[in-house]
Design goal:
The chain is an alpha+beta fold. Helices cover 31% and strands 31% of the residues. The strands form two sheets. Strands 7, 8, 9, 10, 11, 12, 13, 14, 15 and 16 form a ten-stranded mixed β-sheet that branches. It is globular and about 50 Å long.
């Protein structure tokens, strides 16, 4: 299945028709990537994503194939050529043998429904640990294993559990645990620091909401009132269960965090359109 969603994509700065898109350019060799949410044709938290892309590239000791200004130009060009308003956009730096390529393209979005925000989603525990958690790199084997288990168990997201029995992060999200209006989330050095997570923590600091940086044991999840994920597509989405454990979904604090996060996202869109580089 062609991963490119739409009519056009960009390969090394040049617009190409999507029927010429080759998945091998993404999944063969090594790839560093970012997925950015597009709202009304503009990227959300563009500069944060660019900073993380550059950081992942440095950590993998790879060449930065395009800087933020080039990628901004490419995103604007792609958006003008293929006018999709509410979609996810993927930026990939691929390093394969003697060739290196960068791609910018739309991918089919899978966003939670309003009902899922109200009623929560099912989570599962998956015993695995991502290598180099600080870098956003493609691990096709791990992703496939998680996807198959999610399908079999009817889950929305997998919570990764390491060899010490600690929940670190979601397979494509960060995880927060809530008890008595206090939050717990894994330390920065054990996870890929999500951009949504970053802003949720910032909001908590400004709202005097307690956030403890610690991993929760998988066998202690039932001690918490609520569990929610943060990420580009789900934003702030509660779990109604994880495996057989049931959690409270109707938390005013989770609703408040999502509302304040959406305000931050709107501010970032305005900054992109105004050409400002501040975060």
């Amino acid at each position: 299945m062609n991963e490119c969603f739409g009519k056009k994509f960009i390969l090394n700065g040049e617009l190409q028709p999507c029927d010429q898109f080759d998945n091998a350019t993404v999944y063969e060799g090594d790839s560093v990537y970012e997925v950015i949410r597009m709202v009304r044709g503009s990227p959300v938290f563009f500069h944060d994503h660019m900073e993380r892309l550059a950081s992942s590239t440095r950590l993998q000791r790879k060449e930065l194939l395009a800087d933020a200004e080039i990628l901004k130009r490419d995103i604007i060009s792609l958006t003008k050529a293929d006018r999709r308003k509410e979609v996810n956009l993927k930026v990939v730096f691929n390093y394969n043998k003697n060739s290196s390529n960068y791609l910018v393209y739309f991918i089919e979005p899978i966003y939670p429904t309003e009902e899922q925000y109200r009623k929560g989603v099912k989570g599962i525990l998956f015993y695995a640990e991502r290598k180099d958690p600080a870098s956003k790199v493609i691990n096709h084997k791990l992703r496939s294993s998680i996807y198959h288990k999610l399908i079999l168990e009817g889950g929305y997201e997998a919570l990764l559990v390491n060899d010490d029995g600690l929940v670190t992060e979601g397979s494509r999200s960060n995880i927060f645990f809530l008890k008595d209006d206090k939050l717990v989330t894994a330390p920065d050095d054990m996870i890929l620091g999500g951009i949504t997570r970053k802003y949720i923590i910032d909001i908590c600091a400004k709202q005097n909401i307690s956030v403890k940086m610690a991993c929760v044991k998988a066998d202690s999840l039932s001690e918490y009132d609520s569990v929610f994920m943060t990420g580009t597509s789900p934003m702030v989405l509660p779990f109604n269960s994880v495996d057989t454990m049931v959690f409270k979904v109707s938390s005013p604090l989770i609703v408040k965090l999502r509302t304040l996060y959406l305000m931050k996202a709107e501010e970032s869109i305005a900054r992109f359109r105004e050409g400002k580089n501040v975060v």
